[in-house]
Amino acid sequence: MAQEIERKFHVTSDDWRALADAGTRIRQFYLASREGLTVRVRRREGRPAVLTLKTGSGLSRGEFEYDIPDADADALEAAHLGTVIEKRRHLVPLGSLTIEVDVFAGPFAPLVTAEIELPAADHAVTLPSWIGREVTDDPRYGNGAMALAGAPPPA
Amino acid sequence: MAQEIERKFHVTSDDWRALADAGTRIRQFYLASREGLTVRVRRREGRPAVLTLKTGSGLSRGEFEYDIPDADADALEAAHLGTVIEKRRHLVPLGSLTIEVDVFAGPFAPLVTAEIELPAADHAVTLPSWIGREVTDDPRYGNGAMALAGAPPPA
Q1: Is A104 left (phi over 0), alpha (psi -120 to 50) or beta?
Q2: Average pLDDT over all residues of chain B
Q3: Cβ pair B64:A71 closer than 8 A
Q4: Nearest CA to CA, how far is B71 from chain A (Å)?
Q5: Which long-range contacts (CB under 8 A, 24 or more apart) does B42-46 make?
Q6: Higher model confidence: residue A35 or residue A3?
Q7: Which residues form the active site (chains A, B) (predicted)?
Q8: Which is it for strands B97-104 and B112-117: parallel, antiparallel or unpaired?
Q9: pLDDT at residue B57 is higher than 80
Q10: ipTM, 2 decimals?
C-alpha cells in the first residue's frame, strides 16, 4: 500500500509538449467507482496489466496496486462500468518532480489534465504557465467518475 | 482466471459434523457487490489474505484470485460495504468431491450452507440427507449480497 499525494490541474496550452516524452498509451476501465473506493484495471503499452484499488478521496489517498495476467484483464473488462477510458500519458520534468500530462481520447477529448505527485501535502511547487485551474478536490475529474458520468466541465 | 462451477444448498441437520474436519475461521468483506461483479477480501486462518473478483452470476462464474499483503487487507477493510462476514468453513468429503460447509457467525447465525464445486455443470451428484433446498440461483445467498442486505431466508 502506498499513500499517494497528488494534485490535479487543467492544462491550458500545448506549451508542455516541448518538454515532454513521446508518451504511452493507456487503456483503463473501472469495476467499482464510488465515494471512498475505485477499482481500476489499467493496460499500459509495454507493461503488465495492473489492478489498482484506491481508497479515500481528495489530495491524499490509499493506493494498492497488483500486477495481474493480461488474460485476467481481458476477461475482467466484460464487467466494466460506464466508459472505457483511453488516453496518452506524457511525462514532463519539473525540477525533482514529474508532471503527468494525460491527453484524453474518444468521448473525453479534448480534455487534457496534469497531475503532480508530491512528497508531502504541503510541498511547495512553482507551476508552469500552461497549468490552469486546480481540480484536485473536484470529484468529477476522477477518472472513475468520468467513466460513469462522462466528461467533466472544460477548462 | 478460473471458471468456477458451484452449487449451493441449505444444510438441514448437524449430521455432516461426523464427517467434517475441524474447520477454519474465515473473515471476509466486500469492496463491491453488484449484479455481475463482486470484489472480496478474505482472511483465512493460516493463509495469506486474498483479493477475489467474481464475474457473472449463478452456476458458472469467472473467479480471479490474487494474494495480497495482510497489511493491504487491513487497510482496505476501511472501505468495506455493509457487514463483515465471519464464518467457519468445514470440509466434508463426498466421493471424489468435497463439500464446503459454511457455519455463519454474528448477524447471519444460525445460517449453514453447503457448496459443491463440480467438474462440469451437468456432473451428476448424489446428495447426502443433510443437504436441503438448493439456492444456487438465489442471489440472496451470495455472501456479497448478504453483506449488503443481511441474512437470507431460513431453510
Answers
A1: beta
A2: 93
A3: no
A4: 8
A5: B43/B70, B43/B73, B44/B89
A6: A35
A7: 30
A8: antiparallel
A9: no
A10: 0.84
